[in-house]
Amino acid sequence: MKKVQASVSNHQYRKEKGNLTPFEVYSRYSNALDISIKQLRNILSEVESNSLKILDVGCSDGLFLINSLPKEKDTEITFLEPSTDPFEKLVKNTGHNKEWECINQTFEEFYRNNKEKYDIVLASHLYHFPREGYQELLLQLISLLKDPGTLIWIERGIDEITDFKKRFKTMLLPSKYPENWTPRNYKRALEILRSEEGNTELILNNSVLRFPCTQKLNEIIAIVEFFLNIEWSSISETTQNEILEYITVRERVLNEEEGILIYRRYGN
């Protein structure tokens, strides 16, 4: 019997066949990123000031925020990214703007030494932070805001990807993902933010993942590994077929949901 292996080699920043990461393969077949960019641009456009000082926490290559920036806004941005490969891309993507700074540190390192305050703090899909630490993390993010200031927290909702991940992660790695395990979603962060002074708004983005055809099996595998974080080659053939059947009976389409939490601290 094969031993199921958590996927380290297929982490989203690792280059895959065709020079794409699993995350980039996923992005080819989902419109989630496009919808999220449009929504973030609308949110930033509604901020009254024409000049914004922004902190982007865990920004990856920076393109999510860069592509979301309203043209009418002047921006001073601090991009924070701890991982080496995306940081190298980030430096290339931001080099044309002298008002943008790239920092290769963890949030914990940055927070210990930072003395700045920001109009906007963006925290999008910070999956490397455990849910048990959300309370402390969110309070730290809020403490970095000017008064007034806005925290934008983005996290997956409860959708068909949730069902897919729960079904197969609990099946394949029950010691790590027991039956009562649930994939993380925005609701815990929403609960915390609503308990704080200020105003919290929830916006839901709905999008669609359309898996490629069976002739592009390598790309299907990349997307599956992206969501399950389990090496495909370590999964039994029976379960591999079950995963492919799960996708096929849904006509290769899974509906996605994303929660954008907008916490506004108002000035006195």
TrEMBL record:
Alphabetical keyword list: Methyltransferase, Transferase
GO biological process terms held by the UniProt record: methylation
Pfam family, one: Methyltransf_12
Lineage top rank: taxon: Bacteria
Organism encoding this protein: Candidatus Dojkabacteria bacterium
GO molecular-function terms, A-Z: methyltransferase activity
Residues annotated as domain Methyltransferase type: 55-151
The name this protein goes by in its record: Class I SAM-dependent methyltransferase
